[in-house]
Amino acid sequence: SQTIHQWPATLVQPVGSPLSLECTVEGTSNPNLYWYRQAAGRGLQLLFYSVGIGQISSEVPQNLSASRPQDRQFILSSKKLLLSDSGFYLCAWTGPRNSPLHFGNGTRLTVT
Amino acid sequence: AQSVTQPDIHITVSEGASLELRCNYSYGATPYLFWYVQSPGQGLQLLLKYFSGDTLVQGIKGFEAEFKRSQSSFNLRKPSVHWSDAAEYFCAVNMNRDDKIIFGKGTRLHILP
User: What is the per-residue pLDDT across B45-57, written as a single tens digit (0 to 9) for each?
Assistant: First the structure.
C-alpha cells in the first residue's frame, strides 16, 4: 500500500535561518507531488507542485523553493526564513488525474 | 485566474436539519472536483469526487454533491446533519490540464444541539 512520510512534525527556527522539509512517498511510482500551507481562515494555499522529477511549478512568489531530486521525494526549502513563513505545511501526492490527494501528517513551523 | 470560492466561512445548523455548503470555481474547462472534511486536530478526509457522468455524486457519511456546469458550482449537501459532522469542509479543484489542485478557504460547520 502507498504511504507518505513527512518530517519533522514540528520545527522552531529563528528568523534568517534556512529550512528544509522533506516528504517521501512509498508504494507508488511517478506520483504528482504537492506542498500546501494551511492557515486559519485561508484554507490550503498551494505553494508548489510537481508532475515529474525536476519539474516544479511555483504558485506563490516568496522566499520558499521546492525540489524533486528523486521520483518520490519532494523537498521544501528556504535560504532565510521570515516570520511570515510560520504555519502548517502539508505534503500530498496523487496518482492518475482523477484520484484524490493523500496527505502527510504535516509540519508545524514556528519562526521566532 | 483559476480560483475556488467557498463564500461561507462559518455555517451553523441545528442537529437534524439539512445542510448545503457552496463551492464555485473559475476555470475554462470542466475540472475534477472534490470535497474534503477536516475534523479538529485531524487530517483531511475525502468525502466525494466528480470527474464526469452523473452530475449528482454520493459520498461517505451520507453526503452528496451536485455539479452544475452552467453555474460552475459543486455544492455539498446532507439531508440531516449529526453532531459529529461539526468540522471544516474544503472544496478542491484539479485543473486537469496541468494537475494543479487548488482549494477553497473552507467552511467551518457548527452544529447546535
Answer: 999 999 888 899 9
- Whether residue A101 and residue B105 make contact (CB cut-off 8 A), yes or no, is no
Mean pLDDT for the stretch of residues B58-68? 97
CB contact, 8 Å: B101 with chain A? yes
Domains of chain A by start residue, with CATH: 3-111 (2.60.40.10)
Tell me how far CA of residue A8 lies from CA of A104, B19, B33, in angstroms: 11, 38, 31
Cell of A11: 520545527
CA-nearest residue to A96 within chain B is B99
User: What is residue B71's three-state secondary structure?
Assistant: helix
Q: Which residue range is the domain that position B76 belongs to?
A: 3-112
Q: What is the CATH number of the domain that holds B9?
A: 2.60.40.10
Q: Using the beta-carbon criterion (under 8 Å), do A98 and B102 form an inter-chain contact?
A: no
pLDDT of residue A25 exceeding 70: yes
